[in-house]
Amino acid sequence: MAPHGPGEASPAYGRAAPGPAAEAPGSGHVRPLVAASWQRSARARVSPDGAARVELDEDELTAYRDGHPLAAAMPVIRELMGAYATDGEHLLAVCDAAGRMLWVEGHPATLRKARGMNFVAGARWSEAAAGTNAPGTALAVDRPVQVVAAEHFRHPVRAWTCAAAPVHDPRSGRVLGAVDITGGSRLAHPHSLGFVQAVARAAESQLALLAPAPAPGGLGLSALGRDEALLSTGGRRVRLSRRHSEILVLLAHRPDGVGGEELLTLLYEDESVTPVTLRAELSRLRALLGPDLLRSRPYRLAGAVDTDFTAVDRRLASGAVAAAAGAYAGPLLPASAAPGVVRLRERLADRLRAALVDRADPGLLADWVYSAWGEDDVVVWRALCAAVPASQLPPVRARLDSLEAELSAGATALQRPGPHTRR
């Protein structure tokens, strides 16, 4: 099978130009998933006529993917998808959490066609870098996604159809990457989406089998990039409410314990909240976790807690910047407004971004600016502009110029007198 030829695009979609209110002939408005992705792509200044950038050369790619957690799942992924991809003239692809392709395999003729749009190992296909596409958008929304023909943001990719599903670390729940099937019009079927979702779950099961057993009585807390933290304890995983997530993050950060009055100020912006409210929350949390995990006078957790945010901190302290960046799944409880959590979140993000700028590694800097939390970070875009090879500079320079123009316009608007301002 080849990619869609003339007239072979899915009948539901025409060559509508990407935009929030674009319509496709005969289909009404585009799907909300696609419209939202187009808006994110436009906001990230993705060029509709551009091409994905190859960021890792052969040596860098080999070393990186050999050490990647998904390498352990590749035998299962190949067993489930390899023959299907080759026989159907499709491609199987696996990318990391930043959207960089680690493996792209399948039918030789389809592989040759895919090189024309840089759908190759080592290229970045995150949504913020390459626009709407199944692996990149699956990572952006953290769920399985199918993108059909003209639903792609970039015109050169509209001859293709793809379906992808994210793969998660079975212990922490962190996104490790995505598995994708890419080809032509025969993939424009709901079965393709179900297929890659089943492959992703099989990969996660394989990783769970290979993972070392947790230490008896050990506690693990994952709170980066998620509004509701995930607690691992006694072989079970508990998804916490937002308030309970905040409490456990603060207590994990303070292993010696926190007094009730101080915990109140760390948790609540509203100074009128009473200790009774806090005690009620802690009582509910103790009922959820069991009396042996949460202690009082002062409030503290029984035993050490292995958290993803302290792991990033430790790696930064040891100078392992690449390892810290790889473990950073996003801001700490990003929706939280609890004062103590906000301070921890900003401190960790500031430390990491400063280390990235100081390291000046183009790949690490690109991971930051093509993420949801770093796409408007002018300081890191400037560092990337200074670090990338000349051949990769134009799109980076264009994005930086656009951001700086926005900043300048915003500053001018703030300085301009309003209609009721005295002169």
From TrEMBL:
One Pfam assignment: GAF
SMART domains: Trans_reg_C
Record keywords, A-Z: DNA-binding, Transcription, Transcription regulation
UniProt keyword Calcium, yes or no: no
Low complexity composition bias: residue spans: 9-28
Protein name: GAF domain-containing protein
Tagged with keyword DNA-binding: yes
Residue ranges constituting the OmpR/PhoB-type domain according to the UniProt record: 235-301
Region of interest (Disordered), residue spans: 1-28
